[in-house]
Amino acid sequence: MTGNTFGKIFRVTTFGESHQEAIGVVIDGIPAGIELDLEKIKEDLERRKPGKSPLTSPREEEDEIEVLSGIFQGKTTGSPIAIIVRNKAFDSKPYEERKLKPRPGHADLAYWLKYGFYDYRGGGRASGRETLARVIAGSIAKQLLAFKGIEILSHTLQIGKVRIEKQPSFDEIRENSRNNEVGCADPKKAKEMEKEILKAKAENDSVGGIIEVIALNVPPGLGEPVFDKLDANLAKALMSIPAVKAVEIGSGFKLAEMKGSETNDQFYIAEDGKIKTYTNHAGGILGGISTGMPIIARLAIKPTSSIGKEQFTVNLKNFTQEKISITGKHDPCIVPRVLVVAEAMMAITLLDHLLLVEGFEKWKERIN
Amino acid sequence: MTGNTFGKIFRVTTFGESHQEAIGVVIDGIPAGIELDLEKIKEDLERRKPGKSPLTSPREEEDEIEVLSGIFQGKTTGSPIAIIVRNKAFDSKPYEERKLKPRPGHADLAYWLKYGFYDYRGGGRASGRETLARVIAGSIAKQLLAFKGIEILSHTLQIGKVRIEKQPSFDEIRENSRNNEVGCADPKKAKEMEKEILKAKAENDSVGGIIEVIALNVPPGLGEPVFDKLDANLAKALMSIPAVKAVEIGSGFKLAEMKGSETNDQFYIAEDGKIKTYTNHAGGILGGISTGMPIIARLAIKPTSSIGKEQFTVNLKNFTQEKISITGKHDPCIVPRVLVVAEAMMAITLLDHLLLVEGFEKWKERIN
Amino acid sequence: MTGNTFGKIFRVTTFGESHQEAIGVVIDGIPAGIELDLEKIKEDLERRKPGKSPLTSPREEEDEIEVLSGIFQGKTTGSPIAIIVRNKAFDSKPYEERKLKPRPGHADLAYWLKYGFYDYRGGGRASGRETLARVIAGSIAKQLLAFKGIEILSHTLQIGKVRIEKQPSFDEIRENSRNNEVGCADPKKAKEMEKEILKAKAENDSVGGIIEVIALNVPPGLGEPVFDKLDANLAKALMSIPAVKAVEIGSGFKLAEMKGSETNDQFYIAEDGKIKTYTNHAGGILGGISTGMPIIARLAIKPTSSIGKEQFTVNLKNFTQEKISITGKHDPCIVPRVLVVAEAMMAITLLDHLLLVEGFEKWKERIN
Amino acid sequence: MTGNTFGKIFRVTTFGESHQEAIGVVIDGIPAGIELDLEKIKEDLERRKPGKSPLTSPREEEDEIEVLSGIFQGKTTGSPIAIIVRNKAFDSKPYEERKLKPRPGHADLAYWLKYGFYDYRGGGRASGRETLARVIAGSIAKQLLAFKGIEILSHTLQIGKVRIEKQPSFDEIRENSRNNEVGCADPKKAKEMEKEILKAKAENDSVGGIIEVIALNVPPGLGEPVFDKLDANLAKALMSIPAVKAVEIGSGFKLAEMKGSETNDQFYIAEDGKIKTYTNHAGGILGGISTGMPIIARLAIKPTSSIGKEQFTVNLKNFTQEKISITGKHDPCIVPRVLVVAEAMMAITLLDHLLLVEGFEKWKERIN
User: Fold this and answer.
1) Does A33 reach chain B within 8 Å, measured CB to CB?
2) Cβ neighbours around B73 below 10 Å, total
């Protein structure tokens, strides 16, 4: 009913359902005069796109962006940027049978309980297609952060039961994670992950996974205690992504079984004169405030809810238990497609905090 | 600088530093005419209190609440409730040497980078003492939720390397978790956890852990897609607690290695006529909206940053590396004390969402 | 840079500049299942439209609305409603000379100082065309309020030096104010007002005026002390309309010279059993809260800034004083066109407050 | 129920009722390291205080401030500042008869309708005593603005039927307006105003008035189109003050009868090289953004609602019409006491906008 805006100063509002006219985003809080490269938005949308390989859904979505406002002669005007992507024509028929049978694991039932109905054709706002709007906003946020030297990386740690054994370096992530379909920085593990997905697909089943998002060169001082801490807002941002059920910062759950003498990141003076820590169990955030060390977040993604296997549901008219198997095209694993969405949410969160601390004036000085 | 308020309608603002006059809270968005039991606030504060046993810090904090506004003849007036707890006199001397040496794992350095100084006497806003204010607000929120039949539970799953083997029932949690110092629902494991803490203490070290917070009888329909999802706001609420570094909803990280056919919670009609699910991997939340099933969240708490063991730090004046060992009184494990804080943050989040959906009028009808 | 959203729960975000692709609005916080009549939106846009008579600008704007999301089979889905209106092709040439010469009375200079540039082609976000988006949102808000029996009226009190002599009844406003070009409830005065406008036009000059907006049947209890008072939020809403420079509630400035014994609205029990007041100097709001009496607000609109007469400006490149006369098409008086915009802002404000008090649940009960 | 916080970044939350423990304020969003002079807060409170002369209420309020947090060694810490003022002991008895008889013009009835009860002892949150908290926050805001060279002035234009004839210069306001009891910059008119008040007092009646608040040296660029315009937020801030029923910016309502050629403020280059305007009908704000010219706002204050004269009310138990005359001590005119409150609300609004544009970093640079 309300809740479609994220951010305090850099404010992202998304709208649109999968089976209506368009998906769109309005981005408010943009410094004026910044040059934007629309090609980068398209590249990011390409990374989110399904149907690129046997590993993903074979639906063909062509996501053409249409800029409605906020950019003049290639530069931001300081006014809200609105961008939409039209939905393609679709056939409602195949969805008819889902009308009264909410799909297990999906938001159908929850929407029905809250709104009195649910969009049986494709999930409405709960559709993964909504993340299109996030990716557009995130791509713009990443370009603004890049002005300040901030870089966002992401890669896949685990798919199903296949997990990388060694944490890759930032360079390995940069070089390798985009060279395979699963976004893994370890090429050998990537192959195993692909097999894991194909196996699930063959069984009419699905798998989930774990991904990591990293921000480098984040200035110290971002995060507003005691509730708008940087990690608190990152947790919200990342947990709001469909299918994400867990978020950890730095060493996260592992910290529970370690000793304080191990988990405290001890200080030294680095060659560049900055205070750094030998380890980074804190994931770059102390007391809710960035320290200048890399920001590190990991998120767990549940297996795709749409599966061909038969499951129990209830008929909302008769109020009887029935069975359902989700036919049609669906990804056996969405994990690789979530990478760019997670980058987007991290970028949006960081930029919102950065603008709060730096103000808009500083940007103006830079661009003239 | 800004960020000390949580919530959209039920709005909790905390203030106060550990070594100044008082810690306090202002709670806005309270329905009028509700009877409040101040004794319950005191009970909750008692649960947060250190120094109750050898397992916790021997400091003596007496936390007397003083109600400044918002309650008249035992009932809420609809005006903001302000409550403060005075800090006791303290001696600044023992802290002198920390003035230029930020403690590893603590917020000292981050505050120094952000604000240009840090409160070397006790952490300022980053002090665990700030959670006093959260507990007060949470205790009030729990009383309001109780009117609607909603119950909040919490218990300890793990301390250091000791973890319970079997998920306890809600009844076991209710009965057992308050009978031991560590908040564990398994009495035998509780003993082991206590030993784990004492061992760390003997080594001048500290341990962390994992706790679980549960909300029962939450009505379906709470949570506002796509950014103010219930799980997203819970993640923010819980991650904003000092020392928390990870949050998961339902089966969380475990979902990553399961199949969709296992993780989808399948539907049936319960005896009371409600739609329920056989399993609850979703933790009571689908598409960001409560379904009526129990809400379940788990959080990882890092080991106490204050340890006696010698660690590296930097001198902020000379900019040279030095050593520091934290003397004075400190908890070797704060996990059990976080339980009531986590309950508070969950209660505050739920009430905020409930008021948005139900409005204030409904409460009025109830109380007249 | 940021500030394009109004409302706390019923949230209206507008975007778009006059000389770019489109003007649009995203409306979040809509109860689900409400039937909407798009024809009423078109009627309201017609009332805002320039060029209907010699009294207004002869530009031809065709404002076709395009619904992008949030409405399914004629009913709200509870998801954000996005609606856009495309801008027509335009010729940038005639605007070239304004590029460096900000127009007196316009926002040009302020935008240049804030953003480092201004949209010399048509005012960008400061263009009156932005109010299109407000009218769309307002029209939807009025339909939702009508469900609750709330009615919004508006009429013109004064144009230039012509002012009505007697406050019209609500019936007179309903019947007469839409029967003339100036929105005046007194047909004779309406004629004089028209002449006042034509006279200004003949002199290459412009006139302003005063209008009144009224809300009937507003339930008591709307408004949240002490800052989100109903009158405070109405003042913000109405003052945010372009060209509005003053807002008063009830008897407003007149109260300054009256006695307390005259201005206090004394109570009686009306025939319907409700408590009413003999007079309504308070404009239906006491202590920032609606009382059930009619809500009354008046606003002053400055004369159109675009005039043919020669004025002093400065050349922003040379930093020398120069002269400018605004050629092209422009309204000698925009007062009548502001009526529907003021209705919109009042409706949006009231609905936001109503949803806060009543919650979304109540709406659901109504529609099933 | 909710609404006791003002501002987006510089956030002021007030709490407390007139007849409970204390009135207080929490101020969040304060840059760290700024030296504050508590004496200036006391001076401002003195200006708000009743009972200084026969013109005001003879009640004796001693308003001692108690700083609870946020200031360390005289400087801001960046943490929220909490300050309270205790209420003195009072005798509830004289108020007993008001219990069921809401006072005309007061918020009593509106609170009863909204909250189900009202504080018959002194108005609760609707009491003028709440403005104490605003004055404290405003006094701090003025000190922060003064760092940036911004000055806030105020003076009385009209009391009852006595109005100054000529707009005083800023110097005259600075020199004269604090030399008389009514805050008027014209000493002769001040005397007449005093008589007007005494006359009303003698008649058991009350009078209102009009005041002006001015901000000098405000940098251009403050204000966020299209809803968080500077004038829109000022209108909200000023209209939220008890008893204020109208707000105008610049020439306000007068603009309605002027021509565009008169009201457009024409540009010239001033000696200091800045762009200025010959006139200032816009009150320093164009398109919702400050231009660098003086910000000017005027507000109408209704006559004090508490009067000795007999008035009609209703008995809320019997639901019959009855009579009431307000005995006890009350101001026949509160206008002069509102001056410092209006200054406070303007300062809070400006600082909130300034921090948004400049960020917190700039402040830090200044203070180190």
Assistant:
1) no
2) 7
Q: Look at C289 and D252 and tell me if their CB atoms are within 8 Å.
A: no
Residue C339: what are its φ and ψ, rounded to 5°?
Answer: -50, -50
Q: Nearest-5° angle of CA B300, CA B305, CA B307?
A: 130
Alpha helices in B34-78 (DSSP H): 38-48
Sort out which chain A residues have CB atoms less than 8 A from B231's CB and list them. Answer: 239-240, 245
pLDDT single digits (tens) A205-220: 999 999 999 999 999 9
Question: What average pLDDT is seen over chain B?
Answer: 93
Q: Measured at the alpha carbon of residue C108, what is the angle toward residues C103 and C110, in degrees to the nearest 5?
A: 125
Q: Are residues D356 and A9, on separate chains, in Cβ contact within 8 Å?
A: yes
Residues pairing with B76 in the sheet: B71
Closest by CA to B141, choosing from B360, B361, B366, B350, is B350
Whether C196 and C160 have beta carbons less than 8 Å apart is answered as yes
Evaluated on CA atoms B351, B356, B362, B364, the torsion sign reads positive
Whether residue B255 is predicted with pLDDT greater than 90 in this model: the reply is yes
pLDDT tens for residues A154-175? 999 999 999 999 999 999 999 9
pLDDT tens readout for residues D274-290: 999 999 999 999 999 99
CA-nearest of D317, D24, D334 to D210 is: D334
C181 backbone dihedrals φ, ψ, rounded to 5°: -70, -15
Answer for the pair D67, D360: CB distance below 8 angstroms, yes or no.
no
Give B169's contacts (C-beta < 8 A, 6+ positions apart): none
Q: Which residues of C2-12 are buried (b: 16+ CB within 10 A; e: fewer)?
A: bbbbbbbbbbb
Report ipTM (2 d.p.).
Answer: 0.96
User: Across chain C, what does the average pLDDT equal?
Assistant: 93
Look up residue B100 and give its two tokens: 């230029």
Q: Residue D68: list chain B partners with CB under 8 A.
A: 15-16, 20-22, 24, 84
Q: Which of A246-250, B206-210, C123-127, D135-139 has the lowest mean pLDDT?
A: C123-127
Q: In D172-309, at which residue ranges do the beta strands (DSSP E only) sit?
A: 209-216, 244-249, 267-269, 275-277, 285-286, 289-290, 295-301
How far apart are the CA of B255 and the nearest CA of chain D, in angstroms? 39
Shortest Cα–Cα distance, B361 to chain C (Å):
5
What percent of chain B has pLDDT above 90? 84
Give the chain C residue whose CA is nearest to the CA of A67. C21
D110 touches chain B (CB under 8 A): no
Q: B186-200, B206-220, D75-89: lowest mean pLDDT where?
A: D75-89
**Helix (H) / strand (E) containing D43:** helix D38-48
Residues of chain C with C-beta less than 8 angstroms from the C-beta of D311: 261, 264, 266
Q: What is the mean pLDDT of chain A?
A: 93
Please compute Rg for chain B using Cα positions. 21
- Chain B: nearest CA to C224, how far in angstroms? 9
| pTM for this entry | 0.97
Q: What is the pLDDT of residue A366?
A: 53
C2 touching chain A per CB within 8 A:
yes
Distance in angstroms (rounded) separating the CA atoms of residues D103 and D312: 9
Q: Where are the domains of chain B?
A: 5-367
Number of helices followed by number of strands (H, E) in chain C: 9, 18
Q: What is the pLDDT of residue D103?
A: 95
Average pLDDT over residues D198-214: 97
Say how far residue C232 (Cα) sits from the centre of its chain: 16
pLDDT of residue D179: 94
Q: What's domain B5-367's superfamily in CATH?
A: Chorismate synthase AroC (3.60.150.10)
Find the mean pLDDT for residues D90-98: 72
- Tell me if D321 sits within 8 A of D312, measured CB to CB: yes
Residue A28's φ and ψ, nearest 5 degrees, are -110, 155
